[in-house]
Each structure stands twice: as C-alpha cells, then as structure tokens.
Amino acid sequence: MSGPTPQGMTPVSTQYPTSASTQEEAEQFYSDLQAIKDKMPKREVCIIMGDFNSKVGEGLELESGIGPCGQGERNERGEMLACFCQATGMTITNTCFKQHARRRYTWIQPGDRARNQIDYILITNEWKTTVLNSKSRPGADCETDHILVAAKICLKAYKIVRPKQSARFDTDKLKDLKIRNQFQIEIKNRFEPLLQDWSTKEKTPNELWEEMKKCFTEVAEKNLRKRRKKPAKPYISEEVTELAKQKSKAGKNGNKEKYIMLKKEIQMKLRSLQETRRAGLNKNVQK
C-alpha cells in the first residue's frame, strides 16, 4: 500500500438536492460538503459517497479526479461535481475501473426509460491507490430505483492495544444478608494477621496497598462471582431474516406478486418488533 500511515477513516454519506432545486441550493450543498471535508485531519482517509444527482460522463480527467470509465455525457451538475473533486483533491472511484455497462449505471428511471450513473464513491487522491475495485451491484435487493455502489479498499490494519480490565464482581450479592455477613467475616479474618504483620515490619504505601488489594480480591472471588455479560438481543428476529431471504429469492426468480407480499409482511413484523422494543425501553426508564 502506498502513502503514509493512515490515522483514521471518515466515511460521509450525502444526498444532493433534487433536479428541481435552485442553483443557489446546489452551490450551498457543495459549500457545506467542502466545509465538512476541510474540518477533517489532512492525513485521514476521507470517503464521500451518496446520490450526487450528477452525470460526470465518460472521458479521463485526472485533474478532476474522474477516471475513463464513466457513463453518458456530462451535465451541468456533473461539472459542479468535477470542480468539487478538483478543489478538494478527490477521485470518483467508480469511474476508474473498466466494467460492463450494467456495472456502471446506478439509477434506473421509472419505466426503465433511462439508466444513468449518478451515485458515486469519492476518496482523497492520496489514498486512491488503496481502492482495488469500485462498481455498482445491480443484483442487490435495495427496494429503490438506485443501484448499490460498492468499493473494495485495502488499508493496513493495526492492532488496538486495550488496557487489561480488572475483574468485575457481582456486588449486588452483598444485598443478601447471609452473603454480606460471610464476606465481612472473611475480610476481618484476613486482615487480623495483616495488621499484626504491619505492626512489626516497616512497609511502603505501595506494598500495603498491594496486600490490601489481594485480600479483598481473593475474598471477592470466593464469595462474589464475576458478572456474566448478557448476550445482546438481535435487532432483527430469525423469522424476519428468513422472510428477507425468501423475498430476495422471489425477486431473483421474477415472482413479483410473492415479492410484494413478503415485503409487506416484513415491514409489518419490523414495526411490531420496534414497538415491542420501545415498550421495553419505556418500562426500564420507569423503573
């Protein structure tokens, strides 16, 4: 991988104003986007992706960050995107790789009257060599007239060294009178010989602290079992996941009636799950 060591990566998702927007709104969009880009650390990998509602067209323009594998002819909004890339030093990744036509277009006009490339993934020029591929995925089930665009990026991974966490004990068990009395008795029995030892030997504050900590830890390990992490509940149930697989299969097989039926059933079940989860959160807050 070329370039300096990455300090981090910031993905930005964006949505360009519709074609009915004014010139002032379009200019404000790029002004806001550039302000966001300028706030990022210079050595950080910046990726901007989304619906730009712009056609940059075919033809290599290195200074504008546009590769040779775009689609169609450039329009006015595409010219604004090209100027933005040139000003901020960014490359449009899904114009840089030779692909079949169906891997270039990202939007289908209702009625399939036209297919255009208007969704893009941008990356800072400094890191463009880390992009291995970038193309649209027409087979993805996105339930929209836009096509999923994906980029394969190779960045060096770094091991994050986290400090070792101390053992967590279930202190709620001390609410039980029997356990609390037992804990206090054992602590007292352990401390009596320690106090005698401290009265005859001179020790540093650190040595005293280590002996006290060892005493409390060993008694806690015996009487207060460590807390077990509760497994996180999946956001989507297995039933919904299975229905989604069936819906995707129906779409690929061209079974439109079954596809629509399963789509409605999934939406209904997701709403039900959301309401159940919200009710549970409200119940916890009231407690």
UniProtKB/TrEMBL annotation:
<protein>
    <submittedName>
        <fullName>Endonuclease-reverse transcriptase</fullName>
    </submittedName>
</protein>
<keyword id="KW-0378">Hydrolase</keyword>
<dbReference type="GO" id="GO:0004519">
    <property type="term" value="F:endonuclease activity"/>
</dbReference>
<feature type="region of interest" description="Disordered">
    <location>
        <begin position="1"/>
        <end position="22"/>
    </location>
</feature>
<dbReference type="InterPro" id="IPR027124">
    <property type="entry name" value="Swc5/CFDP1/2"/>
</dbReference>
<dbReference type="InterPro" id="IPR036691">
    <property type="entry name" value="Endo/exonu/phosph_ase_sf"/>
</dbReference>
<keyword id="KW-0540">Nuclease</keyword>
<keyword id="KW-0255">Endonuclease</keyword>
